[in-house]
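Two entries, shown back to back:
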Amino acid sequence: MAISRRDALMTALFGGSMIGLRSLVTGLPVKMLLNPKKALADMQTASCSGDVTKAQYVVLATCGSGDPMSCNAPGTYNDPVTNIDLSSLVHPDSTTYNYMAPTPLQYGSKSYNAAGVWGTLGAGTGGVLGLPNATFCHIMTNTPVHPHEPQVLQLMGATYAAEMFPSVLAKQLAPCLQTLQTQPISVGAATPSEALTFGGQALPTIPPTALQATLTNQTVAPYTGMTKLQALRDSTLTSMYGWYNDSSQTTPAQKVFIDSMVSSQQQVRGIAQSQLAMLSGIKANDNNGQITAAIALILMGVAPVITVHFPFGGDNHSDPAFNSEATQHQTGVAAIVQLLQQLAQYGLSNKVTFLSLNVFGRTMAAYNTAGRQHNQFHEMSMMIGTAFKGGVIGGIAPLDQNGVPIAQSGKPLFDYGSLPINPSSGAPIVAPGSGIQPVDQLASWGATVLTGLGATSETVSSLITDTNAQVIQAALV
């Protein structure tokens, strides 16, 4: 029998026979709906291997075009820690784009110059949004190639079984968050290289408009979707009554335990009203649509990790005066702020972490002011959440074409790139041979994120296979 694209998307989101949606509207775990007798035998056994109090949903912004997001953030102006002269780095014209003017911003205990637009995130204690400060990590991905985005998402070979890091996170977090599915969901993949895999299998990208159309307009049985949640709840519970009322299957104490999980009709009505209202506002697959889709999926508890794409200038080889870079910095930072504000609106500020990871950064030296080229030696990733301190991790210096600081090699300048990182203080290290070396920084970033979200040191060691990776303690609360 032919299956429609809408039915295929519903199955991808919620499983066959809408098992995930049935779990959502009843409050009962998927495994109980699939095999209640077996599930009841072990349903009270904890399956979360980490610290459940630290587990959070993750919204990960990623980009295969190598946006110049890394070129105007704190740490790309004169360095207050190492006193490295970064004044020759090129930035968009601040007279044309006043929000790109270098501005002192307080992150952690230090003040850094950055493009003023970053200040809208809320630099300073608590931030103007009342949210944790942003943590900016200057690291190296070690590739200048667009199609290597999947490899960067695999932390360049540093994950167990070459699992993509969004999937590594999802497998760790799903049991702790009790999400409907373990697999991450991409609502923002702009190119095939940004699509996700899980256990080596390709996952479908679910654009926000497709999510909106599927969940708000699904009226044909058997996939009536969000518009028939109460009826779906009642029919699901009715189908379980025979097992539930059989005293040979369930004891009185077990019935009380099960009853405590069952959602009321009023709760389900609230879910339907709030989620449908949110989803009906999606008009395009832009920043607004991705933010709405991500928050709706989190509120429904569908998946532990949602990936998005917020442009910050794109593949700007030809970008005279960095016009696209400047304008998209404004809209890109605004998207992060909007996401954080809406998380606060829905009471999710302490339950969701925002991350960013791009395939590579961009060149910053003044030899090409008509645009920027690929920079394998530098990329800037962000972490915003209750587990992470506000601050700047690492730093940059002039490098030669082999990635060696020119102060050491004496060779001509290639561009600016990442310095080794002191894992205890987070400061960049100028002297050679110590700290987290650039080649190990991507894996170390992954280990730090996992640790911040509750994974044990044993779990981190098993999931991150780079034996030189270190947790950057300075980034953690």
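entry 2 starts here
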Amino acid sequence: MLQFHPPGVGQRVIETSLGAIVAYTAVGAPWTPPEKAQPMMFWHSFGGGASAYEWSKVYPAFLNTHRVLAVDLLGWGESAHPVRDYQVDDYLTTLAELMEKTCDRPAIVVAASISGAIAVRLAVQRPELFQALILVCPSGFADFGEGAERRLPLDLVRIPLLNQAIYLVGAMNEVAIRNFLERFLFAKRDRIPAEMVAAYLESARKPNAQYAALSFLQGNVYFDLARYVPQLTTPTAILWGKQAQFTRSDLGRRLASLNPKAIQSVIELPDAGVLPQLEQPAIVIGVMQQLLPTLTQSRTDPTFC
């Protein structure tokens, strides 16, 4: 899937206990990050066809200032697709191993949707790995004891063979992917170019890609993020597309109220859905550049924790 990323970006393969993880990083011109640049990771959301492409319009803005790794999470994109019922612990384990092997100091992690929630849990477990968090629409999809709005009944998704058919119809053809992006993920359908649909389709068609996607649909990786936010010590900012479906923008404010010391700001992005990093990348870049100095300074402030 390298063709969907900017020139001068290449793939780095990192072995973990559950399989190889692929990350995209600067390998040549026009990118010249400082030799000892701050590590910065981008973690994508879950859903049929998801991959590091989700951040491909944002992370180039940081390639000359940070040591960027845009990650295909386990079971997604070009990373390994083990045949298994994926659980939250699979991602906590592989992401911790990834950070240990690639970061020589605490990292800035930018994560979306359920990967944002997983980032909070990992930052609670391993705070020494994190410099700051920027989270876009973070949700464990069972927050405050409430399930996120579902589009498919769990009973159907859990039926063998039928769930495979659901994935085939819903994620492995161009029409279905475009329809899902237009109806549920974007505020405006005219912001979805053919390249985006092609990137999602290629990721969705990887061998065994259905296992991670169906584990997500079945709720295997859902949890109550509200249980972990009060324990967070990493300086954090939350961005939320005001027109996001599945998880409403008021969830960000509810989460922030549990730990206002760590969650320093919640910013609503108007005219954007649940993927503002693809729908309004210039705005996301601008907000991130404004937030980063304060977030990283907070981590070095001895009075913060």
